[in-house]
Amino acid sequence: MRNKCSTFLFPDKDTKLSVVQISSNSCRSPDASSEIETDCNYLIRELTAANILLSCSIKHQGSVTLQISGNGPISLVVSECDNNGFYRSLIKKNSNYDDKIQSVCTFEELIGTNKTAIFSATIKFKDRKRNPYQGIVEIQGAGLSESIESYLNKSEQIPSFLRLYSSGKWVKGFLLQALPTVTDSGEKNSFNQMKLSLSSIKKNKFFENDIEDFFMKTHIEHNLIRTKTMTPRFRCTCTRKKLLESLSEILKKELGQKRQESIEVKCEFCEKVYCFSRD
Ligand SMILES: [Zn+2]
Predict the structure, then answer these.
(1) CATH 3.55.30.10 domain range(s) in the chain
(2) How far is the CA of 268 from the centre of ligand 1 (A)?
(3) Within a 13 Å sphere around the CA of 180, how many CA atoms are in the beta-carbon half?
(4) Topology of the domain comprising 4-234
């Protein structure tokens, strides 16, 4: 099995199904250290997989950034992905929580959903003349899939059904979306039927099979039309110039006042270290 993401149309062209599978260790840079307990890493894996599904289905050239922030033991999870499947993601612990995070923590306990936890999605266009679009919603306690699904249904107003599943080695998932059609009667028959059928699939079936083969075989009667396929890969877009621009004013002041000869700044996505000296 390898990393992949594909999109299929149903023959009546009113429903779209995107599927993804990525190996768990490809969510971050191979050089990234991990100070986050393994049990929390499903958050970064699932957010990355969800973002690949969304980025794969955008029609224009650009990128999608998904972000979850809250006041629980995990304060931030971010994933960026462009429409060619190049992604980078990060997860941050809340510095107010020194203790080891309990492995039994639920999604709600990790993020903290008491009205302070938010989910945001930002779409940036390669065409710089177009302004970025951002949607923000409160986190729904149920889980990551449900929070993103709720954002798509409410904010984007696209009937959507999203499920993500993690095992130690793989993250797999799918996104079913109803498309606006010319003769839109308000009834999304294939979407509703498919949603029902997808809800009944047992989680282990996704892990026993390559995700694309699985859907092609189990939905053979639907004559799925493949519209896109790509190989998602980690790629960090950090540069010296971008990092310098993002340096806080305090750090710039420290350098300016000659308090320090140089400072080292680590890219939070790939952990590459950049050294900035006074001159
Ligand atoms: Zn980087």
Answers:
(1) 4-234
(2) 7
(3) 3
(4) Hsp33 domain (3.55.30)
| Region 223-227 average pLDDT | 86
Q: Separation of 147 CA from ligand 1 center, angstroms? A: 27
DSSP 145-167: HHHHHHHHHHTS---EEEEEEE-
Q: Please, what is the Cα angle at 146 between 269 and 77, to 5 degrees?
A: 15
Show the DSSP H helices in 166-210 as ranges.
Answer: 189-199, 203-208
How many A from CA of 238 to the centre of ligand 1? 4
Segment 54-82, tens digit of pLDDT: 998 877 889 999 999 998 888 999 999 99
pTM of the model as a whole: 0.89
CA distances from 23 to 34, 57, 165 (A): 17, 20, 12
Query: Looking at residue 150, what is its pLDDT?
Result: 87
Contact of 228 with 239, CB cutoff 8 Å: no
190 Cα–ligand 1 center, Å: 42
Pairing of strands 4-9, 15-23: antiparallel
